[in-house]
């Protein structure tokens, strides 16, 4: 069995594995146990009592985090020439159409979010094999297929994120950076959790939020008391 380093042991000793912490306690603790030299991401894993194979139990949505993600989000806008200036003015990192479609077909995906407009979805839809597995396919439900290109880019840059339950019934999402103070981490996490509570499918029976874990890059997970978010 691999030996645990002194540093790791000290971190593990700070976490009571038997305890479900309040959101406030957990957000303070995750900051305390993060010892990476880089600015680590703070992530939530929320296990839901849904069957994501059933369309009426799919949970997905968007949330504007009050303090942003702390990450510089790279946005590609695929649009017609008349919308290019609007996209650039809103802060898009890459703007164009056919050239970028060719690049993506060649395997280029050095972006975080793609915003597009309904009239070019025929071309964008053909990229599903590349974009789908990476979670980059634009979708009207998440506000990334729209005529209001400028607004969509501004919102994404300001910290609007989208999330969806995976095939195991878990939502994984980054909500902050470890450099944020604990109160900001908590407020971002709470915003995501309250949004998920509101999206509870009527077809979901029994306990909706089964477990919540917060962790940072390379840190152990901290269990949060899911009863706080019982709907």
Give a structural overview:
The protein has eight helices and nine strands. The protein has helices at 6-14, 23-33, 84-89, 98-105, 121-125, 128-131, 149-158, 182-198, and strands at residues 41-48, 60-64, 75-78, 94-96, 113-116, 160-164, 170-177, 209-216, 222-224. The strands form three sheets. The chain has a four-stranded antiparallel β-sheet, covered by helices on one side. Helix 2 (23-33) crosses helix 8. It is globular and about 55 Å long.
Keywords:
about 230 residues, 3-stranded parallel beta sheet, about 20% strand, globular
In short:
The chain is 30% helix and 21% strand. It contains eight helices and nine strands.
Give the helices and strands, then pairings.
Layout: H1 6-14, H2 23-33, E1 41-48, E2 60-64, E3 75-78, H3 84-89, E4 94-96, H4 98-105, E5 113-116, H5 121-125, H6 128-131, H7 149-158, E6 160-164, E7 170-177, H8 182-198, E8 209-216, E9 222-224
Parallel strand pairs: 3-4, 3-5
Antiparallel strand pairs: 1-7, 1-8, 2-6, 8-9
Helix pairs in contact: 2-8
